[in-house]
């Protein structure tokens, strides 16, 4: 579905391609700054399993756990996957608070979703002392999660486009934890002097963003999007 959110063509996150070695990744990015990796994996087979029709056929009657789309994501709601796709997967209302917006991401039942994840090819670089955990999501245009932070990880877009905003750990952004990313983009972002703007970029299918430990980040789906993250805990 076409997105209702304009894309910012400017990208201030460094990019790297398949020539990036593991030692260079550790030296330049793993502990210091985010990077967008292109061509490091081929997930065309996984993408073919993530169409609306295939996902509804495989998981339609199964319950999925939705979280509120605010910084703390306290409230959880269980609904059948088909109900989420057909009734709740819609563009974000800019006036709706994060606590009133339900978002499907992360709370995956691995007994049911595990066979799908077996087809996903994760990014090749690991952080020493961590182990990977997948979080799979689907969300409508204009949706996203406001600024928050956690351990390091990767995020890959399977369908759609996803805009990211990032700040280093020592530069906490100004935001309201219950305001949607779309509202923040409309109201707060235009007031920021250039020096106070976040690192940002729009990911397209096949691109992978790596973010280091404790980096603040907010996300905004420009289209109805399918995406998967690999958290390194």
TrEMBL record:
GO cellular component terms, A-Z: nucleus
Domain JmjC: 99-233
InterPro entries found in the cross-reference section: Cupin_8, JmjC_dom, JMJD6_ArgDemeth/LysHydrox
An MF annotation (GO) of this entry: cis-regulatory region sequence-specific DNA binding
Pfam families (UniProt xref): Cupin_8
Top-level taxon of the source organism: Eukaryota
Name of this chain's protein: JMJD8 protein
């Amino acid at each position: 579905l076409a997105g209702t959110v304009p894309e910012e063509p400017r990208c201030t996150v460094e990019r790297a391609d398949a020539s990036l070695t593991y030692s260079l990744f550790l030296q330049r990015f793993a502990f210091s700054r985010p990077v967008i990796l292109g061509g490091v994996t081929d997930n065309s087979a996984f993408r073919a399993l993530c169409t609306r029709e295939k996902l509804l056929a495989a998981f339609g009657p199964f319950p999925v756990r939705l979280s509120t789309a605010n910084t703390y994501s306290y409230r959880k709601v269980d609904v059948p996957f088909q109900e989420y796709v057909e009734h709740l997967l819609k563009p974000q209302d800019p006036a709706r608070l994060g606590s009133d917006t339900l978002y499907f991401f992360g709370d995956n039942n691995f007994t049911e979703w595990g066979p799908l994840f077996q087809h996903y090819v994760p990014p090749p670089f690991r952080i020493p002392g961590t182990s990977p955990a997948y979080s799979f999501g689907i969300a409508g245009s204009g949706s996203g999660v406001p600024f928050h932070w956690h351990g390091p990880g990767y995020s890959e877009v399977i369908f759609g486009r996803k805009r990211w905003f990032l700040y280093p750990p020592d530069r906490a952004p100004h935001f309201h934890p219950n305001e949607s990313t779309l509202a923040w983009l409309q109201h707060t972002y235009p007031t920021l002097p250039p020096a106070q703007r976040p690192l940002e970029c729009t990911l397209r299918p096949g691109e992978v963003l790596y973010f280091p430990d404790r980096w603040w980040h907010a996300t905004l789906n420009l289209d109805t999007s399918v995406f998967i993250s690999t958290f390194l805990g």
